[in-house]
């Protein structure tokens, strides 16, 4: 919805300027009003309500499943809100990785609501405590106290949170394993049925290499639960109390990449074509900056600055844009 509003604002804005420069004042002003409406609607917080489909669950399971899903969704939002306010860049990066693990798990549960009971420990223990610890860390940062006790508690909170994405992965792997066991049993029955009809895997017999599905290894395609080397952006432990960052960049979740790329293109277009009016700043929710651009538009300074910003947005790596500007 946000990208659609931004795209409409870009179209209306360009159209409005074209009409004004060609003596179609009424149409131009109307289109500029449409641009303003699009920018206003686009900069508002986008709240996506995800509902769990419980139509396939037994009646006795419905209430519990919905309650667990609502708690999981709210705790995810609590962690995300804290992540964006925490000033410690290392911890913020690690929480981003943790949120990606949580998102993968929640996406899976949303597609397989019958398995939400298997995610009980993740929902009621790990994610609940992660949200509480994040909020406690944020509150300590807000006090701006730097006593030895405050620093010690913050270090302990940070070190605890660093391992949470691994805990999330382990829980996800356990949930997946149940499905793998069911798949393995189904495949065994199917193989026996085929063999009874005289059908066999001749390629397998020729190679002499049996194909086995190990339900205890986790899903190999996702790499969940396997950490052979530090991931990009991961915070790793060094010794007992120190932390270091492998790389200060949060990778874009796969399911958001298309949306991030579109928002990146829209912001670049707004800055280059309508930056004199501060359109890209309004779209980002930076209203004061947008007003400043309008006030100074007669100096042409906003025009040059916004063109540079638009080019920067366009050529900025998508991971950097996601972390700095995507909302």
From TrEMBL:
- InterPro entries on file: ChloroindolylP_hydrolase, TM2
- What's one Pfam family the UniProt record gives for this protein? TM2
Question: What stretches pass through the bilayer?
Answer: 261-279, 291-315
Q: How does it sit in the membrane?
A: Multi-pass membrane protein
Alphabetic keyword roster? Membrane, Transmembrane, Transmembrane helix
Asked whether the keyword tRNA processing is assigned, the reply is no
* Compartments (UniProt record): Membrane
Broad class of the protein's primary localization: membrane
Identify this protein by name. Answer: TM2 domain-containing protein
Q: What is the lineage of its organism?
A: Bacteria, Bacillati, Bacillota, Negativicutes, Selenomonadales
């Amino acid at each position: 919805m946000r990208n659609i509003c931004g795209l409409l604002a870009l179209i209306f804005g360009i159209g409005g300027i074209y009409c004004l420069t060609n003596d179609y004042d009424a149409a131009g002003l109307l289109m500029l009003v449409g641009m303003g409406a699009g920018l206003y609607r686009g900069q508002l917080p986008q709240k996506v309500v995800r509902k769990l489909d419980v139509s396939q669950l037994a009646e006795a399971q419905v209430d519990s499943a919905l309650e667990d899903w609502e708690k999981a969704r709210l705790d995810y939002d609590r962690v995300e809100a804290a992540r964006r306010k925490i000033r410690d860049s290392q911890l913020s990066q690690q929480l981003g990785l943790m949120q990606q693990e949580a998102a993968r798990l929640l996406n899976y549960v949303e597609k397989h609501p019958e398995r939400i009971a298997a995610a009980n420990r993740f929902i009621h223990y790990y994610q609940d405590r992660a949200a509480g610890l994040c909020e406690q860390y944020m509150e300590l940062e807000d006090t701006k106290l730097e006593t030895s006790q405050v620093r010690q508690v913050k270090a302990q909170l940070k070190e605890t949170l660093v391992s949470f994405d691994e805990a999330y992965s382990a829980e996800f792997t356990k949930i997946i394993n149940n499905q793998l066991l069911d798949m393995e049993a189904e495949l065994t029955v199917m193989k026996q049925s085929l063999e009874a009809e005289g059908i066999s895997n001749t390629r397998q017999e020729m190679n002499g290499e049996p194909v086995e599905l190990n339900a205890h290894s986790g899903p190999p395609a996702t790499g969940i639960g396997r950490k052979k080397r530090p991931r990009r952006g991961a915070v790793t432990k060094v010794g007992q109390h120190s932390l270091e960052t492998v790389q200060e960049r949060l990778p874009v979740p796969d399911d958001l990449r298309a949306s991030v790329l579109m928002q990146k293109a829209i912001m670049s277009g707004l800055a280059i074509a309508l930056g004199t009016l501060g359109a890209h700043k309004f779209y980002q929710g930076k209203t004061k900056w947008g007003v400043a651009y309008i006030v100074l538009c007669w100096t042409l300074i906003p025009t040059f600055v916004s063109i540079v910003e638009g080019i920067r947005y366009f050529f900025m790596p998508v991971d950097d844009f996601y972390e700095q500007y995507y909302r």
